[in-house]
Amino acid sequence: MATLKDISRALNLSVTQVSRALNDHSDVNEDTRRRVKEAANLLKYQPNITARKLASGRSGMVGLVVAFNPHMVSDGMWIEVVSGLSAQFSGRGMQFVLHIAPEADAVLPTYQKLISAGSLDGFVVVEPWATDPRMDFLSGLGVPFVVHGRTIGMTDYPFYDIDNQGLAYESAHRLIASGHRRIALINGVEHRSYVQARTDGYKKALSEARLPFDPFLLRHGVMDAACGLTQGVRLFSGDGPPPTAVICANLLIAKGVYQSLDALGLSVPSDVSVIAHDDVLTGPLAAAFYPALTVTRSPLGDAWAPLARFLSGRIEGKPLAELQEVAQYEFIERASVGKAKD
Amino acid sequence: MATLKDISRALNLSVTQVSRALNDHSDVNEDTRRRVKEAANLLKYQPNITARKLASGRSGMVGLVVAFNPHMVSDGMWIEVVSGLSAQFSGRGMQFVLHIAPEADAVLPTYQKLISAGSLDGFVVVEPWATDPRMDFLSGLGVPFVVHGRTIGMTDYPFYDIDNQGLAYESAHRLIASGHRRIALINGVEHRSYVQARTDGYKKALSEARLPFDPFLLRHGVMDAACGLTQGVRLFSGDGPPPTAVICANLLIAKGVYQSLDALGLSVPSDVSVIAHDDVLTGPLAAAFYPALTVTRSPLGDAWAPLARFLSGRIEGKPLAELQEVAQYEFIERASVGKAKD
DNA sequence: TATCAAATCCGAAGCGTTTCGGATTATTGG
DNA sequence: CCAATAATCCGAAACGCTTCGGATTTGATA
Fold it and tell me: Rounded to the nearest 5°, which phi and psi values hold at A24?
């Protein structure tokens, strides 16, 4: 483990100058810089980020804190999030670590501990709620963070989000344009901000078309196939009059809905039209929809790069305006939407 | 963020003494210690682990480095591992973090980086191969680590393992005792050390009974239901003469095997006997086997506490003898094993 | 030639903690 | 009453890095 001192000794330079050379400061001779970097390579120098953090306040380490919940065991999305972010940050010479808090109540204290322990430079927070204490907490402490998604209302923090309201609006709007009057929305768990945003978009489309909002047609649940299946059954063979179209918050739900329709002897799109949102997760799902599924599409994987960029930007003190983005989705028309029968 | 200096000032003590008081050193007056701890609480003092690491070489942070592989996305076991370990370490006042390397080749360099960066005290390594470069690498650097499982042969490092050879041996032995002569083993991916150990136990039972080893009956694959299903089909409707019993490396495989037998019109245990190993994972699997499944049982969750204990023991320099354990499994006889027909 | 600015360098302080070596006081045994 | 011992305490150095303020050299400018 070579140190700055070793390099400085070898080159007959001061530790100061070696440090400045390696960190690309301006006041060091180009030739010196070259020699220093050469020597650093030769000696396999790796900066001690502990010492760096102590001296400069920056460690180059950022983290994600999530509460353990039993549901996540079966939900591979976590790995996707963590490895996506990990790759992006290590591409920027930073370290990304995951910390699992034992329960939801422990998240804020865990932040507190990690912060005052002084080992992390910032955090990324995922799956925000419509109103979320985490952002307030971190803001209050002045700790840099970036959010995947955003809260409703004022967002004075960096974030990357997709146009959830827009995609729900457009899905509903297109179905309405095809003559549908009873449109269901099978959404994620309530109070997640993106869930709420989609509900808003859905309602907006309804009200613009002067269609009534029927609570029977709005469903919440964890976004898996089981949810799609059960909600599908309830919608199409339940108490109320069934919808003629359904919007699914993701592909798994759509899969469940297809299964339920199959079981009930209903067919897509002649009996029921379906639109889903496609997060483009890796894994064995998707692809195999028949009839081919019309979707709004925005790859989850597109989020990691901007999230990493925004968080480092925040740490470096860039202005907020450069650190916020709401990405567009793509509307992909396939075969699962048809004219409403009446 | 109070520091030691703040406390020392408030109490008119030296920083040294405050540090020693908080760390339970011997040469500090009981009364002083009490006062110090009180003040620390009052000022919400949290030790700066960055500074601590720099001064003492210990940060109280340990980590797990795993290579990203697409398969893990669908495999919830990771969350289980990470959260189990996380809980145990935080119970010992330590931090546990996960670092995902972009690919298998990047694991060793990632260790290298994290080590010379000087932020972690040690590592836990999981899913060892029969011969595994990670242990050699870490040993060579003198970095503390603990292994979940162990390599074949000399193990001069702390580990927690279960008696894989024993459970495979006993499973095979019992089936042989019930008159079975053709016994299949659907095992995990080759070259994992626990997979190899189980193969060894299986072969040992065969050879003790003077039964031939038939490569047709030994299957390897990722340990999920799909594997159990396909291997089941191949075993029981494939080229070779089918077995009368099958040992499954975990419950998911067993589930797939049950499905395959069901599909082929074979029944348990009259046509085929089944024994599986039960890791007792949380999640929606298991439980629903009919007929009830005979298993060897050793909960994965039992591993986290000893692993954490062993790693901190290693860091504190405890002797190796106290830091190794191979846990016993339990044999649970249920309804899936019967006499062999002939 | 004197002056100034730019380029390049360095010493020293400081980040918050641990720890070594000793200092001070109180206690005990002879 | 003195020396030895135990109980408590403290100053200062160290960990490896960054950074502030200034020093030195060079070249251009007036």
Answer: 55, 40
Please classify residue A231 by burial: count the beta carbons closer than 10 Å to its beta carbon, then call 0-12 exposed, 13-18 middle and 19+ buried.
Answer: buried
Mean pLDDT of chain B: 92
Mind listing the pLDDT tens digit for each residue in A126-161?
A: 999 999 999 999 999 889 999 999 998 889 999 999
* Pairwise CB contact (< 8 Å): B102 & A87: yes
Tell me the pLDDT tens digit for each residue of B282-331. 765 656 799 999 999 999 999 999 999 999 999 988 899 999 999 999 99
Lookup: tokens for A186: 């099978």
Residues 6+ apart with CB under 8 A from B341: B244, B270, B271
Give the strands of the sheet with A330-332, arranged side by side.
A218-220, A183-187, A245-248, A273-278, A294-297, A330-332
Chain B residues inside the 8 Å CB shell of A284: 74
Residue nearest to nucleotide D14 (CA to C1'): B55
B51 touches strand C (CB under 7 A): yes
Q: Give contacts of A74 with chain B, Cβ < 8 Å.
A: 76, 283-284
Q: Give me the percent of chain B exceeding a pLDDT of 90.
A: 76
Which one-letter DSSP state was computed for residue A192?
B
| Nearest nucleotide from residue A52 CA, by C1' atom | D17
Please give the nucleotide, over all strands, whose C1' is closest to the CA of residue A6. Answer: D16
CB neighbourhood size of B311 (10 A): 28
Task: Assess whether A131 (CB) lies less than 7 A from strand D.
Answer: no
Collapsing DSSP to helix, strand or coil, A162 comes out as strand
Bridge partners of A247, per DSSP, are: A185, A275
**Is the separation of the CB atoms in A146 and A161 below 8 Å?**
no
